[in-house]
Specification:
By secondary structure, the protein is of the alpha+beta class. The protein contains 1 helix and 13 strands, in the order H-E-E-E-E-E-E-E-E-E-E-E-E-E. Helices cover 25% and strands 26% of the residues. Strands 1, 2, 3, 4, 8 and 9 form a 6-stranded antiparallel sheet that branches.
Length: 204
Amino acid sequence: MIYRVRARTADAGFSLVEMMMVVAIIGVLAAITVPMSGNALRFLKVSGDARSLSNATAVAKMRAAAKFTQSRLYVDITGKTYYIQTYDKATSAWINETGTTSLSSTVSFGYGPVSAAPLNTQTAIGQAPLCMNTTVSPAVAVANTACIIFNSRGLPVDATGSPFGDDAIYITDSTAVYGITVAATGFVRLWRNNYTSTPSWSLQ
């Protein structure tokens, strides 16, 4: 029996046309996925900041009850930071309880075009009242700030210690607005609006 040995040809490769087609497909997929990834990242940043603010507000409420004094969430609107303070009765000063937390780079304090607060919260949309500097007499308001204050029973109060049920903090990334509201009973809620002037708040 005679076996014929077939000559081995050189290994076949990819042609230039095939390579260009692959590059084109990768380009199309990248054009679709990159914007989607960017939008998802923005959503995670603003929603994460909103939940952190909501948690910090709840912690401030618990600190007031635990230390049997007033506690407040101090918001620096222009600096895009916030932290918790408790009131020292001996020195009549607010003492920092936590480190400073900063908002994400794409997030800021504000509510953009939204013209109305969530239902049954504030009478008119707006950030919580200005924080007061009590180290001077009489105490003076600190510009570009917002403070939510709780008394030792965990109820929201104003700078004079009177009951206050109109507190809120709003943040936005120009695609959505989140609001943290505090009812007169001390109930903290988190809301979301799709950056529209029409009130369309949804409880988170």
